[in-house]
């Protein structure tokens, strides 16, 4: 199994360019530019001493906060060192023999599935369909599958499956006795998260597993905290039995409080709604690229009729973007960029035009 390359490696770039990592504007990782909620920062500073003790091995406070936020019972929740740990622990305990994932999609599903010995089928999303999941996807869900994994909105395409479509997929999986894992790491960034999230279906479908991250919307990527929800309590017990203790540290164990920060959530929603429209419109005006309309806080685009390595060219301007060349079903002409604040987005547009038209 190979190491997967992700966005956000500002350390490697800073070293290579002999600059400070703070000088780089990182468009390669999809993190809320509002940064860590102030209420949480304050709590961290005031409670620095919590690291003197082991965290609660049951993570009761954290799980209670998550349960309250979703209006669900505590026993349906498992927490992890980022959504990544939850994806790996759920998959390794589900032990699927045969699985289906999208292509392209977040790289860690494939790694987790291969590590667990699963055979992996791919549903190749069509460029002419803007990489959206179409009706034919239902036909790809055959009885021999044990698990279907869907990222919604999908990474790196920023395309969304609406609730109606997702319900059909869930029903289809249920009928065929297949588990469905939906990664909602980015659902909080869509126009109307409540009408997209499949959380309201969790109690009625024991084949449904939802993954959530606090690392993206609450800008806690370095803290590492995520969770998973399912009514399959047998699986959650197995996870507990097999899992290493204390993978979530005492600071991360406090992070459930961010879910109560209504001002931060409101401010973040206002930012994403306005910046997504602004950034998408500005990019659409650039004739050398095809931009895919984003549903999340990142944008996929393709460089048209150009052989330039624009990632490298932008790096010379201290701007880091995500090349999509290691995603299945995308070629090196595809790139993904995060939506950041207005000043940074404007800087990107100006630098990008320079690279495309002057370089
Ligand atoms: C779709 C998706 N799910 C999960 C993750 C992992 O999130 P975390 O940092 O919480 O492990 C990522 C990270 O990029 C992602 O893109």
Structural account:
This protein has 359 residues and is of the alpha/beta class. It has 11 helices and 13 strands. It has a 7-stranded mixed β-sheet, sandwiched between helices. A 4-stranded antiparallel β-sheet has the order 9-10-13-12, covered by helices on one side. Helix 5 (107-115) links the parallel strand 3 and strand 4. Pyridoxal-5'-phosphate is lined by residues 82-84, 106, 151, 155, 183, 185, 213, 215, 221, 226. Pyridoxal-5'-phosphate (PLP) binds at residues 82-84, 106, 151, 155, 183, 185, 213, 215, 221, 226. Decarboxylates L-threonine-O-3-phosphate to yield (R)-1-amino-2-propanol O-2-phosphate, the precursor for the linkage between the nucleotide loop and the corrin ring in cobalamin. InterPro entries: Aminotransferase_I/II_large (IPR004839), CobD (IPR005860), PyrdxlP-dep_Trfase (IPR015424), PyrdxlP-dep_Trfase_major (IPR015421), PyrdxlP-dep_Trfase_small (IPR015422). GO terms for molecular function: pyridoxal phosphate binding; threonine-phosphate decarboxylase activity.
Question: Which features does this protein show?
Answer:
EC 4.1.1.81; 34% helix; Aspartate Aminotransferase, domain 1; pyridoxal phosphate; 11 helices; 4-stranded antiparallel β-sheet; 7-stranded mixed β-sheet; cobalamin biosynthesis; alpha/beta; binds pyridoxal-5'-phosphate; Aspartate Aminotransferase, domain 2; 359 residues; 13 strands; lyase
